[in-house]
Amino acid sequence: MALSPLVWADRLAIPQVPQRYVVRAGDTLWGIANYFFRDPWRWPGIWNRNLQIRDPDLIYPGDVIVLRYIHGAPYLVDEGPARAMVGRSRNTVVLRPKVGSRPLVGAIPTLAPNVIGPFLQRPLALSRRAFHRLGYVAGAVHRHTFLSPLSRFYARHLGAHPDKVYEIYRRGPALRTKDGGFLAYETKYVGQAKLVRPGRLPELEVISSIREVEAGDRLVPWRHEAPVPYYYPRAPRKRIEGHVVAATHDNLNLGTYAVVAIDVGKNAGMRRGYVLRIYSRPRPFYDPVNHETLRGRKQPLGLLMIFRIFSRVSYGVIMQAHREIHIGDSVATPQD
């Protein structure tokens, strides 16, 4: 159903936003959409990709973004590289990142690289079967209980053709549903090792580690991934509901740019780039007139964007937080 102009106008971030601005290295797709609109997850509906620019799916530093209207509905247009200007119009602005970031030569990312970069390949959420099928650290080559960089160890269950580089993980707590059902083992990243001597009892050397390597730690073949993939924020087409089940750090109160795990994954149709709204648990309160305890409504707390998916678990970064977010809060497809 088409939205009325008044509804669309209400979704502008402010009543009078600048009509255009020039993209700079350090800007982000989310930041651009959030600057103009209250609902940045409506990206597909408010973004008009100009087919004449070099790549219709990407935005580059130097491109000019223009706010236009069709029948009162605002949308964004990328007009391509900016032409030389004698002076800058008062209606042209340059967005600046709200978190530290490094200059980018290529297209601008959805998020600043330092927000989710450290979490792209860690942690893992593995089923019991997948975890127990992994190769593992069997023991140190020399007399060491704990292993650090340059230490060597024997490994087992790497298969007939071991990989050259492995990431080392340690089993963490089990992720569970709200009712206590098992979802997956959350494995903690330990470090990286390289194969130095194949054979019946392969020998590996620790390349790097963020904690000491122990016997029993699991080995996952290393696969190179782009440092910061491009995610296009969008709401799921169907209703998805779940709960925050874990956080990647120990803070009880979670805010913007915190990374959390939810109990919904690929099996439920989750995709990278999906945006979910976060809701508080209904709070009970006492009515002193009727002398009864009532249960309040769920209250919206912020927005979560999914960037990593497993069968029954997904990881997302909190993009907006109006209030503190806690483990146990619910997530769902944003509604109009």
Strands side by side in the biggest sheet: 7-8-11-10-9-12
Write the H/E string, N to C. HEHHEEEEHEHEEEEEEEEEEEEEE
Average predicted confidence as pLDDT: 81
Strand tally: 20
3D shape: globular
* Class from secondary-structure proportions: mainly beta
How would you sum up this structure, described in words?
The protein has 336 residues and is mainly beta. It contains 5 helices and 20 strands. The protein has a 6-stranded antiparallel beta barrel with strand order 7-8-11-10-9-12. Strands 13-14-19-18-15-20 form a 6-stranded antiparallel barrel. It has a 5-stranded mixed beta sheet with strand order 2-4-3-1-5. 31% of the residues are buried.
What is this entry, summarized?
8% of the residues lie in helices and 36% in strands.
Pick out its properties.
336 residues; mainly beta; six-stranded antiparallel beta barrel
List the helices and strands and how they pair.
Blueprint: H1 5-10, E1 20-22, H2 29-36, H3 43-46, E2 47-48, E3 63-70, E4 73-81, E5 92-93, H4 113-116, E6 124-126, H5 128-132, E7 135-140, E8 152-156, E9 165-176, E10 182-197, E11 203-209, E12 218-221, E13 241-247, E14 259-262, E15 275-279, E16 284-287, E17 292-295, E18 300-309, E19 314-321, E20 330-332
Parallel strand pairs: 1-5, 2-4
Antiparallel strand pairs: 1-3, 3-4, 6-10, 7-8, 7-12, 8-11, 9-10, 9-12, 10-11, 13-14, 13-20, 14-19, 15-18, 15-20, 16-17, 18-19
